Amino acid sequence: MADKILDIRNLDITFKTTAGNVHAIRGVNVDLERGETVAIVGESGSGKSVVMKTAMGILAGNATINSGEIIFRYKEDDGSLQEVDILKKEKKWVRQNINGRKIAMIFQDPMTSLDPTMTIGNQLIEGMIMHLGISKEDARKRAIELLEEVGITDPEKRYKQYPHQLSGGMRQRVVIAIAISCYPDLLICDEPTTALDVTIQAKILDLIKTIQKEHGISVIYITHDLGVVAKVADYVNVMYAGRIVEVGNVEEIFYDPKHPYTWGLLSAMPDLDTDDDRLYTIPGSPPNLLHEVVGDAFAPRNQYALKADWKEQPPMFKVTDTHFAATWLLDERAPKIEMPQELKKRIERMKQTKG
Amino acid sequence: MTKYIIKRVIMALVTLFLITFLLFLLVRIMPGNPFPSERMSAEAIAKKRAEMGLDDPIFVQFGNYLKNVIAKGSFGKGSSLYNGAPISTVLPQCMANSFKIGGLSILIGVVVGLILGIAAALNRGRFWDTFCTVLSILGVCVPSYVFMIFLQYFLAYKVTIFPFYFDASRFLGSAIIPAVSLSLFSMSTVARFTRNEMVEVMDSDYVLLAESKGMYGTKLVTRHILRNALIPIVTVIAPLVVDLLTGALVVEKIYGINGLGKLMVDAISGEGIDYNYVLALGIIYSALYIGIMLILDITYGLLDPRIRLANRKES
Amino acid sequence: MPEISTVTNEDFVLDVSKDLTTDKNFASQGFWKGVLTRFRKNKRAMTGLVIILVIFVLAVFGPMLSNYGYKEIISIGSGQDVVAKSLSPRIPALHNLFSSSAYQDAFADRVFLFGTDSLGRDLWTRVWYGARISLLIAFVTILIDMLIGMSYGLISGYFGQALDGVMQRFVEISNSIPRLVIVGVLATFMPKGVWLVIVALLLTEWIGMSKIARAEMLKIKGQEYIMASKTLGAKNFRIIFSDVLPNTIGPVITQVMFSIPTAIFTEAFLSFVGVGIVLPQCSIGSLIEDGFNNITTLPYQILPPIIVLALLMLAFNFVGDGLREALAPRIEDM
Hints:
By secondary structure, chain A is an alpha/beta fold. Chain A has helices at 48-56, 91-97, 120-132, 136-149, 155-159, 168-180, 198-215, 226-232, 250-255, 260-267, 307-311, 341-354, and strands spanning 4-17, 20-33, 37-41, 63-75, 81-85, 103-106, 186-190, 218-223, 235-240, 243-249, 317-318, 324-325.
C-alpha cells in the first residue's frame, strides 16, 4: 500500500439552522496519496467545501460532526511520519500544528480572502513567525522570495501594499504564497480560479502545479469546473448531496463514467464541437437537505432512476480497483442501461482530440 | 491624505457658515417681537432697535454679528435670561458642565458598549449575547430622561446614594446619574453594532484564511477581527452625538445642571423667548455637531487604508 | 448503509420521476408573498405588530370606555366640594393597590384603572387620549415626510449629475443642523403646541427617507429593465414612478417603521420640555412630565405613559427589524 497522506472515513455532519437541521454531509470517504492530486467535483451546496473545512478544523460554529475520522499522516521536521485524527484533536492543537503548517488552504475569492486592513507583507510573515519561529527580518526575506516565486513583480513594493491595491490575480498569487510559506504537506484549493478572469485562471493553475512539483505537496481541488479537473487531477471524487457518488482516476471518470449524475455533469460541460446547439443541463436542483433523504438523493432528477433508487441508498459498486460508483445500475439485477448516445459521441471526440 | 483633510475642513467651514447665516436670518426676520411691547413705548422700541442696529440691512447686521462672534467671542446680550447679562459670560460655565457630563457619558457608553459587544460576539448565543440584545432593546425603547427619572427616584430619593440635584462642587458624585442615563443609548447602540460587525467579520473569508494559517485566540481577535470590526464603529458615533445633544436637554433640565441644554430649554420655553440665546446656542450646537462629524470623518479616513491610500493616489 | 438490503429483484425497473424538470426547492414564489411568509415567521415582528394593534385599539376606544372626558375634573356633588385628586389606581372589587389618599373613600365605588392626576382627571382616559395624539402626530408627519423624502431622493438619484450634486449638498447641510436647533429656532416665531412639533418633524425626518430612495434609485437605474423601458421611449417621470417606485417601497416602509418611534420620541421630548402640547390637551410626553412633577409623592402616575411609550418604541422597532429581514433575507436567516 502506498503512502496515504489523508484518509477521510465515513464523515457525517449536520448544521443547525433556524429553519432546522441540515444533514449536509452523509457519510463521505476520500483518500489521497502523497504527492498526488485529487479533485472533488459537485454542484454548489453538495458539501464539497464543508468536507475540506472540516479537515482544516475551520468549520462554522453551528456544525456538529456526528461521526467519522480524518486521518492525516505528515512528516515531522526530523523526517518521522506522524499520524493524527484531526477530529479527535483540540482546536488549539490543530491551529498550532496543522493549520498553515502542514495543511494550507487557498480560498475561492481572492477579493475577500485577504485582510483589508493589513499589508500583504504582514499577512505573509504572520504565519511564518508563528510556525517556523523565525525572526521578523528572516520572515521578511523569505516573504519577498515567496512573492517572487509566485510571479509577483516588484515584490519589495508589493510587500508594503494593502490588498485593495492589487488585482484579483495578483491577490490569488499572494494567497498561494501565504499557503506555501510554511512548507505544508497538503494544499487544499477551494475553487481557486472561479472568481478570476479566464485568462488568469490557466496561469494560476499552472502556478499551483509547478509549486506542487517543486515542493512535493499533495493537492486537493474543490471545484465544479470539470475543465479544471481534467487539467490538474489524478483522481476524481464526484460528490452529490453530501455523498461521494463516484470515484475513479481521471481517465475512468471522463471516459467511462458509471453514475447517471456524472453522465449529467459531463453532458453539461460546454463544448465547441457539440452538434446540438442547446447546452444540456441536469433537470431540477439538488435536494433540500433539511429533509432527510430516502433512497438515492439523485433519484428525483435521474432520467434512469430505478424503483430501487427510491427505496434504498445504493452501495458503492466496484468497477475496477480504482473506480467505484454508487448507483443501482451497476447491480447485476439491473437492466442494461448505457450512457446517453450524445455523451458517448462526445467522449469519443474527447478521446480523439487527446490521443 | 492632507488634501482629503483640507477638503473636509473647508467643506465643514462652508456648511457652518451657511447654517449660521440661515439661523441668523430666521431668528431676525421671522415675525416675532424681541421686546416686551406692553412694557415699552413705541418710541423706546424704535430707539432700542436703532441702537442695536436692527434697522440696518440684514447683511450688514449679519456681518456685524459675525465680526463680534469671531473677534470678541461675543454673542450679544440676553434679553430675558440672566437679566440681560452678556451671553459670553454665561456660556463658559454652561459649556464646561455640558462637556464634562456629555464626555463622561460617551466614555461610559463607548467603553462599556464595546466590551459588551465583543463579549456577545465571542459568546454567540450564550449569556452575554442575550444580555447585549436585552440592553439594546432597552436602549432603543427607553428615552434617556425616563431612565434618569427612575435612577433619580430610586438612587437619590428612595435611597440617597447620590444627590437629587446636580452640585458642581461635588462633580463626580452628582454627575453619575445624568452621565449613566445619557450613556444608555450610546452603550446599547455601540454594543449591538460591535456585536453585529464582529459576527460579520468572524464569518468573513479573510478570517477563515487567518484561521487556516493557524491564527487563533487573542491574536486572531485583536489582529484580524477587532481591527476590521471597529473601523465602522466610528460611523455610528455620529447619531450618538445627536442623541446625546437632545437627551442632554431634558436630562440637564431635570437634574438641574447648568448646561447648554438647560440654557436652550430656558431660552425657548419661558414666557419671553430669548432670541439671542437661541441664536448663540444654535450656532454653538451646529458648530459642535459639524466639528464632531469632521473629526469622525478624518478618523475614519485615517483608520481605513482603503480610504487613506485611495486619496493619496488621487492627489 | 443498512445492513440488510430491502431491495428485491422487482425493484430493478425504470421508475423515473414524472416531474423531472420542476424545481421543487426554488419553486417560484411571488416576492411579496415571500416577504409576508418570512415576516409571519418572525416572532418578534409579530409580537411588535400585536402590541401596536392593541395600543391602536386602546388609543381609539380607550377614552370611550371610561365615563370621563380627558379634561374633565371629576368631583362629587354639584359643587367642587370633593374632587377626585390624586387617587391611586383602583378597582372596587379588588383591594386598593396603593396606600389611600385623602379623598379615597368618597370614590370607593368608582373605577380608576390608572388612578387620577393631581387635578382630579382620570388617567386611563388621559393616557389613551395622549397616545392617540402622539400616534396621530407621528403618523401624519411621517407619511408626509415619506412623500417628500421619496420624491426628493428619487428625483435626485434619477437625474444625477449637477442636479444630484446640488440636491445632495442641500441634504448634507440640512443634515448638519441638529434637530434641537431647528426646534429652538422654530420656537422663536411659532406658537407652542402641536404644530411646532409637526413642523419640526417635517423638517428633519424626510432626510433619511430621501437617502434610501436615492440609493435604491441608483441601484435600480443601472439595471437592464430600466434601460429597456427607456429604449422603448418611456418618459422620465413614468420610469421613475411606475418602474422604480415599487422597488423602493419596501426599504422606505422599513424606514417609516423606524421613523415613527423617532417621531413619538421627539414629540414626547418636546412636550416634556414645554414647547409641545399645551394644556389641557395631553400627549404621552406631557403626561410623563406631569408624572415627573409629582414623582416623589405619587410615583404611580408616571408609569402608565412611560410603559405605553416604551411599548410603542419596542413594537415599532421590532416590526421595522422584521420587515428589513423579510425584505432582504440573509442566508443565515433562511
